[in-house]
Write a structure and sequence with these properties.
Helix content is 37%, strand content 4%. It is mainly alpha-helical. It has a two-stranded antiparallel ribbon.
Length: 99
C-alpha cells in the first residue's frame, strides 16, 4: 500500500502533529513501509495458534500465603481494629460507594 503526501498531511492533522513540508515525503515512505509490513503479517496462517504474551511459557513466581508479621506483632488485630470507626467480623467496615 502506498501513502502519498496528502494522506500524511491528513493523518498529521488528525493526530494533531506538526509536520513540515520537507518531512512529508520521508514520512509517506515510512508509513507505506509499515503498512506493507502489516500486509505481510496478515498473510501468515495463524489458524490453531493460541494468543500469547511471550514466546516463552512463563509462570509468575508465587509465594506461600503465610503470615509474615514481625515478632511481637502477631495477634494485634483487636488493637488495630480499635481505631476503626466501624469494624465487623475482624475487618474494617466502610460505607457502600457504588450502587
Amino acid at each position: 500500500m502506498s501513502i502519498d503526501r496528502a494522506t500524511v498531511r491528513k493523518v498529521a492533522r488528525l493526530a494533531r502533529i506538526a509536520v513540515r513540508e520537507d518531512e512529508e515525503e520521508q514520512l509517506a515512505g515510512e508509513l507505506s513501509g509499515v503498512l506493507d509490513w502489516i500486509e505481510q503479517l496478515q498473510a501468515v496462517d495463524v489458524e490453531g495458534v493460541e494468543p500469547m504474551a511471550s514466546v516463552h511459557p512463563l509462570e509468575l513466581p508465587r509465594r506461600a500465603d503465610a503470615l509474615t508479621a514481625a515478632e511481637g506483632e502477631a495477634g494485634i488485630q483487636d488493637k488495630v481494629l480499635a481505631n476503626a470507626p466501624d469494624a465487623r467480623q475482624g475487618f474494617y467496615a466502610v460505607p457502600k460507594v457504588v450502587e
